[in-house]
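Async update (no meeting this week)

Hi team, since we skipped the sync, here's where things stand on the single-chain job. The sequence we agreed to prioritize is pasted below, unchanged from the tracker. I ran it this morning and attached the output directly underneath so nobody has to dig for it. Comments welcome in thread, and please keep replies under the output.
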Amino acid sequence: MLSLLCTICARGGSKGVKGKNLRPLLGKPMIAHSIAQARASGLFSQIAISSDSEEILAVGKEWGADVLVHRPDDLASDTAPKIPAIRHCLEQAEAILGQRFDIFVDLDATSPLRLPEDIVGAVDLLRSSGAPNVITGAKARRSPYFNLVEQTSDGTVKLSKTLETHITRRQDSPRCYDMNASIYAWNRDAFLSNPAVFYPETRLYEMPEDRSIDVDSELDFEMVSFLMARRGRN
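Output:
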């Protein structure tokens, strides 16, 4: 039987929405929703929280995290990329538990609209496809082949990507997706041999737009609060 680990990396600093990982959302801290979704998926033997904040780690433990990983300051700055922090969390969790996992899934604490079945679907795609990893996204509203433009150094604009055949409808362009930063699923060995988000064989699990908002601003938080409240009423 394959062993699966869930990682949730949440640093203490936040510029767009101050303290967003612990901000109350429908009566509990935002990070608690990701922990609950991981548990409800039924996939994981262990859930690890990584943070430079003692308060976040304490709240993570209170709401059901199994492993607490103290993230070094150099992996928690505003400019630090997330992949090294994810790798640190995976390696520390394995060291603490004395266990090697086959698959691990990182859930973004600021994407609480996902459902447990989204996590299950991403992992199912990872296993059935044999891909090194799976990312999640929603259908893009704009297409780089039709109505998404780039500005050049002289101020003129052009389509971001072109095809040999001119297209007149967005529907005729290749399928494009907005990454929603919600779920990242990796084959553990593939990740540790080359920690990355994109490989030649990377696959995408599609999620609907109303489960794909990542909280990066006050407006995002208001939209997520509204959608989650509406889901609760339904």
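Quick observations from my side:
The first strand starts at residue 4 and ends at 9.
The chain has two domains: 4-138+177-233, 141-175.
Reply here if anything looks off.
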